[in-house]
Design a protein that fits this description.
With about 500 residues, this protein is of the alpha+beta class. It has 11 helices and 12 strands. The protein starts with 6 loop residues before the first helix and ends in a 5-residue tail after the last strand.
Length: about 500
């Protein structure tokens, strides 16, 4: 099965794909900008923290140096012998020297127990100029010793971003750092919070696009409905009011095509009607002369020839009458009125008029109808339809055969059937019998091949359906016409 192009599907896919692509591009740009901004802010915060800590620790280091110089001066002035006379002072000096070389400032176990969930991901280390550890936060990784400026390194808990600053006065180094996980989490949070509203609005946007595309294509739907409402015999132009300007050229071309087709059909109908009218007079004169010659002639061979001439004239007259009828049927729905017609009564009148032909052909003609059945249509056209169907059956059914007309209600519709037990038609030929001048290969009876073409035109004008099937006793031909029920 070939893929059918859908304008609605193409527009929806194009719009939604464009929006999705723009959204994905926005996600990428927001993520990149957020990561860069977060990195800049956190780097600035690391640098600021290092400078603040350097300023705080500088005073402590300078004070420690002053005390150390003073202790050295006291020790040098008193000497070892002098300190023996002051045992308490000697003990204090000894304790100071031990603490200044071995003690490292920390935050205590109590502070470790109250850490914030992000505090374990932040670290601070301060070292003396000689590399000795001055201060370290709990859980701090091993920063690269002496590293200054921004740097990246990998610790036991993952990747870290650090900043080192060397105090120009005292020479000690302060290093602060944080895990990359903190930055990544903040970036994800920013991107998620920025794009979540769009994700929530995306289904609503798709619905609005769907409705908008449907609204934009509504004129095309109306145009399609207008085209579907046109019957084969209706060639009225399509309305151009309310049609988008992109579709207006198509409507104009279609209306031009309909106008050209209508003119062609009108010329064909006029030619057929004019030719049929012109043929009626010479045919009538020919038949009159042949009839007169037959009455006056006594020669058997001449009389036989004249009878054949009369039969030919009758067949030609029948053909002319059928052509005129076909021309009227092709004139369009304007010649068909929409009035309630009692189909059973119409069938009785038509069959009574054709009764003499049935007697001459030695064919049993019957009507099967239990009740009055109304349909909506034109009584003259419906009578012509039934007359053509019955006339066809009488012509092609052998003497001693039967032709039955049935009228009944079926599933809310009206069924008209004309059935016979004649030779019928091959299934392959049933599709073509509605063509003009077509006759079956095995048909020998006289006829023009226009009867069922006229029936088809009348059926179309009444919005009915026609189908061919089996006739009586599993043989012959059955023509079934289904009319819509009368709307009460």
């Amino acid at each position: 099965m070939k893929h059918r192009l859908s304008l609605r599907r193409t527009l929806l896919l194009g719009l939604l794909s464009t929006i999705l692509l723009a959204w994905l591009t926005g996600v990428g740009l927001v993520f990149r900008e957020a990561r860069q901004e977060v990195s800049d802010v956190f780097d600035a915060d690391l640098a600021r923290s290092a400078r603040v800590m350097t300023s705080l620790l500088r005073h402590e280091v300078e004070e420690e140096r002053n005390i150390s110089r003073q202790v050295g001066a006291v020790s040098a002035e008193l000497g070892a012998e002098g300190l023996r006379h002051y045992p308490l002072l000697a003990s204090l000096l000894e304790d100071y020297r031990g603490n200044s070389q071995e003690e490292v400032l920390d935050f205590g176990e109590a502070a470790v127990g109250s850490l914030h969930r992000y505090e374990s991901k932040l670290a601070l280390v301060a070292r003396y100029q000689d590399g000795g550890l001055m201060l370290q936060t709990p859980g701090a990784p091993d920063f690269p010793v002496g590293k200054s400026g921004f740097f990246d390194f990998k610790g036991p808990s993952g990747k870290w971003r650090g900043f080192g600053l060397t105090d120009p006065v005292t020479g000690f180094v302060v290093q602060v750092g944080e895990q990359e996980q903190v930055r990544a989490g903040l970036v994800d949070s920013i991107v998620g919070n920025s794009l979540l509203p769009f994700l929530l609005v995306l289904p609503l946007m798709a619905l609005v696009i769907w409705l908008g595309v449907g609204r934009a294509l509504r004129p095309l739907s109306r145009l399609t409905a207008e085209m579907k409402s046109h019957t084969p015999s209706s060639l009225a132009p399509l309305p151009s009011i309310g049609v988008p300007m992109e579709v207006q050229p198509l409507v104009n071309e279609l209306n031009g095509l309909l106008e050209r087709v209508a003119k062609t059909l009108e010329h064909e109908r006029r030619f057929t009607a004019d030719a049929a009218h012109e043929l009626r007079t010479p045919l009538a004169a020919l038949r009159a002369h042949a009839q007169l010659a037959l009455e006056q002639s006594r020669d058997p061979e001449l009389r036989k020839t004249l009878r054949q001439l009369l039969a030919g004239a009758d067949r030609t007259s029948h053909l002319v009458a059928q052509l005129l009828t076909l021309a009227r049927a092709d004139a369009g729905p304007g010649v068909v009125s929409s009035q309630p017609v009692e189909l059973v009564g119409l069938a009785r009148r038509t069959l009574s008029e054709l009764g003499q032909l049935a007697v001459e052909q030695q064919i049993e003609l019957a009507l099967e109808a239990a009740e009055a059945v109304p349909v909506t249509g034109d009584a003259t056209a419906l009578e012509l339809l039934l007359r053509n169907l019955v006339d066809n059956s009488l012509r092609y059914t052998q003497p001693g055969g039967r032709v039955t007309v049935r009228i009944a209600r079926q599933n809310g519709e009206v069924l008209l059937e004309v059935l016979d037990n004649g030779p019928g038609l091959a299934p392959a030929e049933r599709e073509r019998v509605f063509e003009r001048f077509f006759r079956g290969a095995a048909v020998t009876a006289s006829g023009s091949g226009l009867g069922l073409s006229i029936v088809q035109r009348i059926v179309d004008a009444h919005g009915a359906r026609v189908a061919l099937g089996e006739g009586l006793e599993g043989r012959g031909l059955g023509v079934r016409v289904v009319f819509p029920a009368v709307q009460k």
